[in-house]
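Posting for a labmate who doesn't have an account.
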Amino acid sequence: MSIRRSLAAAFILGSLFLPSTVSAQFNWPYKVTNGTAITDVPKRAAGQESALNMTTPKMKAVRVAFVGLGMRGHDAVERWTHIPGIQVMALCDHERDRAEKCQEYLRKASMPAADIYSGEDGYKELCRRKDIDLVYIAPDWKHHFLVASEAMKNGKHVAVEVPAAMNLSEIWQLIDLSEKKRLHCMMLENCCYDFFELNALNMAQQKVFGEVLYVQGAYRHELSQFWDSYWKKDAQDKLGWRLDYNQKFRGDLYATHGLGPIAQVLDIHRGDKMKTLIAMDTKSVNGKKQVEKMTGEPCTEFRNGDHTTTLISTENGKVIEIHHNVMTPQPYNRMYQLTGTKGFANKYPFEGFALSSDELKKSGVTPSSDNLSGHSYLSKADAQALIQKYESPIVAKYEKQAKEVGGHGGMDFIMDSRLVYCLQNGLPLDIDVYDLAEWCCLAELGSISMDNGNIPVEVPDFTRGQWNNIKGYRHAYASPTDEAQAAADAMDFTTKLKEKGKKYWEKADKATKKK
């Protein structure tokens, strides 16, 4: 425990310097009191303010740089060319050719080429630039925190792919950077922007389901066909970063897809907070087999179980159930279930709602029958009528274009568009640094629970006492006048940028022909 405490002191004082490449560790200090594990919560530094509902000055245009252009990053570059009022300033990847290939998206959109950065430390040079507002971060997990912290130290807002932080040390450092620097630190949790989740959230906020008491989420995605696709640093790297991480660490390492949308429904750190969790897992069977298949050698230890389950209680008497399984054969499933005192919503294995005739009438929807019971799913016609009545304003605004542009069915485009909208209008982001912390902490906290015989673990209050200051989670919107002005400024910027881009590429093509 003395080593754990000395590490905590170093982090709290800000005196622990990290190398450019680091292997994340589960080593945050904790103590066990009356059978419950309690982790240390560093004090907020003097002069440092909460980032709850934080706003920053409006941006007529968002100057963005992308770091990590593999599986998700290159698609993000293409999506952003469809959003008015943005300019891609820089592209960075460990492998230079990946960054260079993304120039074609800019050419296709008649936008000027971006500057290219590459190599292990290319992102550091990128972050030192003065003409970048936002760094969009999508490399492997172990580099999420490294790039985000470097960008924020250099005065940049960050949007970080999931999971944005791998352990409590990284979580607390990102919180402190966001609070101290007054910079947005958003985790790119796209599942919060799926159509069903957005509509169900709106219904829950309008009390269609009564008081939501029990919620379920998951990431059940058998990855055997993908393990070979994850980036490998050299010929000796047989596993790739993701399988290697699952072998070394125990816990729900990818909780955010299941947890994010349901945490918004429960108003986490906006009137309620996660209080205590208990985690348990199965032994590793398929995980070990996968390592043996890829290395050709026996696997004697695989830390992460094939299936991990986490139960979380909240301050207001709610229960959250989260599952993680990337190893065993099963249909893809994020679960997303809401159980309320008056109704029920479910996304997997099929989408549906359960409400009685009386409750459907109270919600303003005429039922197809007076005999409807919450014991059965609504008919397709009744469910569609409910969705039409309570369609999320975000779905109404973006659905058509989102389905055309794409990105996991369109939710990625909605996520990116909302991020830009909030920055351009000077609004709080939909997902703040405390959401990031709460949705990522299950990994290390779950490990603590399981390594100590599945004991309860207290979930730290990442807001440091301010979780009840805001009453209810809500998306932020500008006034119609301000929104229209911001949209006009964005379109004007993009029109001029495309004129500049067209000339740029014409000149570049002429120069190429002369060679």
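Reply:
Got it, the structure tokens are right above this. The longest strand covers residues 212-220.
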